[in-house]
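Thread amino acids onto this structure.
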């Protein structure tokens, strides 16, 4: 929690400090409510959620007849937590069908941090004593497989790849999962290509990977990686991916580099899928499970 606080609050205290300053005004009048809403919007919470939060908070302030800053802050925390939704299941499905490895597809646009996330996640799973295998299904960029292999070596797991640039991504993904079955691996993590073509192309590519992989083992988890610093643009991309493939969880990367942590709320609402992991830096240990309570506390710190 201390690490999360440190990483987030450096950049994210805009929200916390901004709201606190507003709440300690002598009177919370309509101007203050408008400013609170603006602050939430600036933190990328999205229009719906910002409005909902302000309305709920206004209602409670009225009903409870208090403008005491500490009390209002506590209510704000509760309302924010409701929006982040602590009841969502955020566990990574890392147990496969009997006798099969768990298969995790990692998808998202180029540059959002897919390969890095696969490397970090492999490290987390290895630390849990899992036998992990990586699959380099991003065959469009020559350097992509090398980068994944470097991460693999760093965390001590093998990478299945094709030496041929432009090889069929689905066939590499299949080879990786089949190798995982043969070697009795616990988890196979598949890094996919992030070229954002049109929706039809993306659907074809991800659909084929999923279909072909399923011949060896079921896909247990499809993680969509989103760069938290890209705001609304990232949201638009996320929706395209969500229409192309059935996403089971979101990894929100680069939260260490943004003041806009509210994007968590906006994305979950837009996709109806939980944020499961967050990226807080470029190093191997900079991946954390998403915890709603801790996150809200860090936002308001
Ligand atoms: P991919 O194209 O989606 O596979 O993206 P990469 O994994 O190659 O990452 C793109 C860049 O983002 C690299 O320079 C990473 O080090 C960096 N990166 C990835 N995750 C994070 C994160 O959580 N925080 C920060 N600050 N940088 C990150």
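Threaded sequence (301 positions):
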């Amino acid at each position: 929690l201390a690490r999360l606080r440190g990483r987030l609050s450096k950049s994210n205290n805009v929200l916390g400090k901004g709201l606190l300053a507003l709440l300690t005004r002598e009177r919370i009048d309509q101007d203050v409510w408008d400013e609170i809403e603006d602050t939430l919007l600036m933190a990328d919470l999205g229009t719906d959620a910002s409005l909902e939060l302000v309305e709920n908070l206004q209602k409670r302030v009225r009903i409870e007849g208090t403008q005491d800053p500490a009390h209002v802050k506590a209510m704000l925390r509760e309302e924010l937590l409701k929006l982040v939704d602590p009841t969502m299941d955020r566990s990574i499905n890392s147990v496969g069908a009997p006798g099969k490895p768990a298969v995790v597809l990692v998808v998202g646009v180029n540059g959002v941090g897919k390969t890095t996330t696969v490397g970090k996640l492999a490290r987390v799973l290895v630390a849990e004593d899992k036998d992990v295998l990586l699959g380099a299904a991003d065959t469009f960029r020559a350097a992509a497989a090398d980068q994944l292999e470097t991460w693999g070596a760093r965390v001590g797991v093998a990478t299945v790849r094709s030496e041929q640039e432009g090889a069929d991504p689905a066939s590499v993904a299949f080879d990786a999962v089949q190798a995982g079955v043969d070697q009795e691996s616990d988890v196979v993590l598949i890094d996919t290509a992030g070229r954002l073509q049109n929706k039809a192309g993306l659907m074809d590519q991800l659909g084929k990977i999923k279909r072909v992989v399923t011949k060896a083992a079921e896909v247990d988890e499809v993680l969509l990686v989103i760069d938290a610093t890209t705001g609304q643009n990232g949201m638009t991309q996320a929706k395209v991916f969500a229409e192309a493939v059935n996403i089971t969880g979101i990894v929100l990367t680069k939260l260490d580099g943004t003041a806009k942590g509210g994007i968590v709320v906006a994305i979950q609402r837009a996709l109806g899928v939980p944020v499961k992991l967050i990226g807080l830096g470029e190093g191997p240990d900079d991946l954390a499970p998403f915890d709603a309570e801790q996150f809200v506390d860090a936002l308001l710190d």
